[in-house]
């Protein structure tokens, strides 16, 4: 039951080239930076990543992206990531963009053993009808487009069928975790982390504070340890290394 692994490098040592990864985080909040860095140092490539966004400010998944280690991204936000946009428009990267709420539910459904579900999000658009550019040819043309999805009517409203997502591995970050893998996330850093953790067949969690079993009130657990296979305790320095995406000063 003790799922603690000594180092991040050991925790991701069996992630092969070409693996699929669900990665938690939103912008710079709740991103498993230490595990991502360990993957980078290991040299793993050809990855298919499922995450809300693909890193920001040269951190998080942007580290792997800039190194050419990511082959495909399933996400909902490109934002100000210029390298992401460059690789996508240049035909170097396959990208499946989906509505943010749909992405969240696809991850949760996959983790809950639900193969597919119907949602009204995207009906009447290319999300349902197909034709979204998944890969460009580097010359402005579309090399690969999304296929059409099944649309069905319930009680007079049309819904599109979306598939649940399962990945080979998942990388997440939590504020607290115990040796059994029970996790607690801090405020907004919860974001996609529980959902990504559910979707991974092997889920690795880096935790800012490691505690013994029983120290977390069962009512306070955000993600049960059944969804987590490995836990890595961060050093105080790693836990405190948190960037701010946009600094603002109020009057």
TrEMBL record:
Gene3D superfamilies: Glutaconate Coenzyme A-transferase
Keyword Ubl conjugation listed: no
An example molecular function term from Gene Ontology annotations: CoA-transferase activity
Keywords assigned by UniProt, alphabetized: Transferase
Organism superkingdom: Bacteria
Family in the record: Belongs to the 3-oxoacid CoA-transferase subunit A family.
Protein name listed in UniProt: Succinyl-CoA:3-ketoacid-CoA transferase
Organism: Streptomyces mutabilis
